Amino acid sequence: MDYRALYRQSAPAVVLILGFPKGEGSGSKGSGSFVRQDGLIVTNAHVVIDPRTKRPWPDLTVYLKPEKVTGDDENDLKYPYPAEVLAYDRDLDLALLRTKKVPPHVATLIVGDTEGIEVGEPTLAIGHPEQGALWTLTTGQISGTIENFDGIPGKHVFQMETSINRGNSGGPLIDGHGFMIGVNTVMARQARDGLAITDVNFAVRADVVRKFVNDHAEQIPPVPMEVARGNDGSASSPPSPGGAPRTTPPEMTSTPPSNGRAGDTRKGVSAPPSGVAVVAPPPPQREQPSQPSFLQPIPGIPADLPPAGVAPSAKASRDVLPKPPAFRRRHFRSPYPPGTVLTGKALYEAVRSRAEDAFEELERETSH
């Protein structure tokens, strides 16, 4: 596995997320991933929810990766974009954000297919660990799979030895082909008898992430929604954070539970409560600030995708995320990462090898 190539390919799609309360006070720091070019971001619910109010942070900013991370905030945090929560589920510990203005040439990660992923699968994580550098890489492998984690129906997770810490929450777990196969969520740190636990970390599986996005597709309006929950249930436009976005990473208070239970903030809802109106601001404009030179349009993908939640059909079950290729079928495991360009002899050999594999598979199936 070429970790350097996978990092160069995947890191631009990973964002830093900072959340602050109104006025003074400690906030939250976490990671997230662009999964669509309209600015849709997947992260953990506990990254974007204030544990004191049990509601989204009123001041949320995501930061795009600079061309070179130096450890200097002035350089590393020079691409801020205000964002807001579109949906969240505390049980699954998943949330959807969207930037209020769509960054140009958004790099994205494809939410992969978890079929065929087995124990021993090599993985990597990209995020912003506490007291560590931003956009850091850790590596490891899948240690196991747990369904209905912590007794929550539908919360299927991977256990992995890939190291994560506070600040990695919400970031991607990536396989050797560059696909996001999970969202990093919790780590085990201490046993009941007080002994330290190491290399036991968890990520919500990609199939759960895809279902979460699809289930809430119709709840996502053409533009990011702004919801104000008044005491009388009436809606008004919430105050927007004034001045420039805060760039000092906050003291983290919204942290993942150490064992999957402690610190959990459940009983959340994924949609605005009844009686609360949704106020749609003017449509977001595609901003054209100077950007890192490596953020280039992805070939074959139009620059202007349909806005989140706007489907060409009325089917609620429409898959709103790009489908990964069926590379995980046992008879087809491509050795090339997504986006690899093959020319000349290499292309010929790849096509011939794939054709031979397909005919051999067909022959085995018809001989039974």
Explain the overall architecture:
With 368 residues, the protein is of the alpha+beta class. The chain folds into two domains: 1-325, Beta Barrel (Thrombin, subunit H), CATH 2.40.10.120; 338-368. It contains five helices and 14 strands. It has helices at 3-10, 45-48, 73-76, 206-215, 344-366; strands spanning 14-20, 28-34, 40-43, 49-50, 55-56, 59-63, 80-89, 94-99, 122-127, 136-146, 157-160, 172-175, 180-187, 201-205. The strands form three sheets. It has a six-stranded antiparallel barrel with strand order 1-2-3-8-7-6. It has a six-stranded antiparallel beta barrel with strand order 9-10-11-14-13-12. A two-stranded antiparallel ribbon has the order 4-5. A hairpin with a 4-residue loop joins strand 12 and strand 13 (180-187). The longest helix has 23 residues, at 344-366. It is globular. The two termini are 36 Å apart. The model is unreliable at 223-243, 249-316 and 328-333 (pLDDT under 50).
